[in-house]
Amino acid sequence: MPTVVFHTLGCRxxxxxxxxxxxxxIKHGFELVDDNTPAxxxxxxxxxxxxxxxxxxxxxxxxxxxxNPDAFVAVIGCYAQMAIDTIRQxxxxxxxxxxxxxxxxxxxxxxxxxxxxxxxxxxRKISRQEFTIESIADDISHTRANLxxxxxxxxxxxxxxxxxxxxxxxxxxxDDIIREANKLVDMGYKEIVLTGVNIGTYQQNGxxxxxxxxxxxxxxxxxxxxxxxxxxxxxxxxxxxFIADSDxxxxxxxxxxxxxxxxxxxxxxxxxxxxxxxxxxxxxADKIPGIGLGTDIMVGYPTEGIEEFKNTKKLLADLPVSYxxxxxxxxxxxxxxxxxxxxxxxxxxxxRSGIMIEMGERKKQTFYDSFIGCNVNVLFEENYNGWWEGFxxxxxxxxxKSESSLKNEIRQVRLREVNNQKILGDIV
Length: 428
What we know:
By secondary structure, the protein is an alpha/beta fold. It has helices spanning about 10-25, 50-65, 80, 85, 160-165, 175-185, 210-215, 235-245, 260-270, 275-285, 305-320, 345-370; strands spanning about 5-10, 30, 40-45, 70-75, 95, 120, 145-150, 150, 170, 190-195, 205, 205-210, 225, 250-255, 290-300, 325-330, 375-385, 385-390, 395-400, 410-420, 420-425.
């Protein structure tokens, strides 16, 4: 039985797809092994969201080849879609598969003999067709299952390469989503995370994203449904109202802002204004007590001056956002902002990143502090030196001391103190 090891970089969607591809390979006779075991096949599932992500992908490929030089090496995913010429120059790569064909990876592995030149499976034009997913990850090594409902994006923000790497927006067949959700519950998963590139744009045979939530909410045995990152203009008040009334939907939304300045937002080709973002965040906070609200912030976008940066700081300082992911702008060839000038100096971007990260940490601390003395339900995932850690439904990281295993259990915890970006508590 040939063995395979996976290295997955990037987003939750990549993780979901890796699980699907891995299970398909298992069905075709492969044995999945961990990174410490020499394998016959190495699969590097790549990301290309920033230049730093590209560099990490190249590094991961080279490290894998050095560690296991006799393995057949397949590089798949977004970076494989966008950088064929760069990857093919890395000695030791045997197969390069773009996004259109990566889910059928098993079809291109008739032989695991090393090649002098890599085989390339690639389509520049990615299909717009709706899709189904036959394979499901069989082992429950994680407590949260990623359920892919959508792929691609039609928004084409000026700084983003993903619309090129992933192709146009397309949705998974509605019945296929519900089928997999039932299967995941039968397998023992307690939480399902809905993933995609732009999940709020889901449209299939008359069904929209709210219809997906409504139908999943009816699945018997499901404990939690979590929505991954969702664009501001696709988070309708009806969706927020549904979350408020549901016992299954997590009190958690991650809604990317990018900038709090309207001129920058327009240059970014974002679909929302600062005022629109403020309205939807405030509505969610008012409608759903205790909701965890996260966002993405980009600093150093070309032409961003001190006033534009101040507008972003002020907007977020005044809003009930509980955490940020902060990114420094990175030029991506082929995007609308690539030739936009003036560029923001590296040191200024670094300073602004630090300021926003510090603000985000303060807001998270304040959010966590507001729950001290309260009881919350936590889905436990991992044990670290006797401390079991997991997440509340509103996405607070919680740790408790326990000698017995809590893995994949939802337990009520009384929160007592914040320590190092997590809350310590006791099982009730």
